[in-house]
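Repro:
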Amino acid sequence: MRQLAAIMFSDLVGFTARMQEDEGGARELVRQHRDVLERAVTAGSGETLQFYGDGALTVFPSAVNAVDCAVRIQQELAGSGSTRLRIGLHVGDVIHDELGVYGDGVNVAARVQELGVPGSILLSARIRDEIKNHPRIRVRPLGDFRLKNVKQPLGILAVEAEGVVIPDSQDLPKAQNESQKSIAVLPFENMSPDPENEYFCDGIAEEIINVLAQLPGLKVAGRTSAFSFKGRVLDVREIGTKLNVGTVLSGSVRKMGDQLRITAQLVDVTNGYQLWSERFDRRLDDIFAIQDEIATNIAERLEITIGGTVRQSRPNTENVEAYELYLKGRGLLYQRGMAMFRAQRCFEEALARDAQYALAHAGLADSYSILGYYGLIAPPEAWPPARQAADRAVALAPE
């Protein structure tokens, strides 16, 4: 029989050593743990398919039931002062036939459990996806790990609940932690007195995303995903969980005339600690250097090797006015509606200042295309200038 289920693999820590020291006491300990397990599993509508002496394989009809059962077990054991279990949870296939109980899901659940410490409950990212709409269940990301006989790195999270132990990611020696080589760049906060500078702040964050996306070995959350947190106050660990990244870059911008003050902070989502922070007091015409400096610092902190210069393939302009107009145009383009006409004018004005600015040509192509798509310009009138601008952008920057 094959079934898709939420799988719980539990293991009694230190059983082998205890058995060598006191066989009778070890057997009694197993009996006590089985009693606790069976009560919790019954309450969670689960089924224990197999006992392994010092461990057990249990399946549940839902991930929520599985997590609730695991919490119930750890809390009861914590209250009794008994030796604790390690518990690992995963969603996957379970095959149950005359040969026994096996399947890829069982293997992964066992590997997740092996990462834990006494009293912990570790989850795979697949379990997290199943419970994300249940806010009463709190989890903390520990990072992405390579598990034995599992091809792809697996996101691992720990359950946060009273009586449950949360391991530090540094306490998980059996896997290679890759979490810090992923990042989300949040929208930078506008600290300027002029609210119109919001577009400039968003544009800087987006440009940093574009720079970081070029770095080999670094996973970068897309703009749409990262900017969905704009204006929301959330714990950085929650953001890390939702975006499945190990680090988050946030910051602020104050713009007064041609003077800039930019702050940036890189935070490890597994513990909330800052890995790097910096304040830049510069002139507006230094903006490109600041962006590259931020990207370089992030690469150094995450131990990513940069080949050549950071901006090795990013077409740009040295005209700051053109750059500002481009950022404003992009911000307006994201608003859709009639704002797209204003975006189009911004790109045209940027090109009036620097006709070789490839990104501004690309922005103009986008504005014509989207205006035509929404019927705000008749499509036969929109497509020719859109194609012309796109061709020009590619001619200026083939890469």
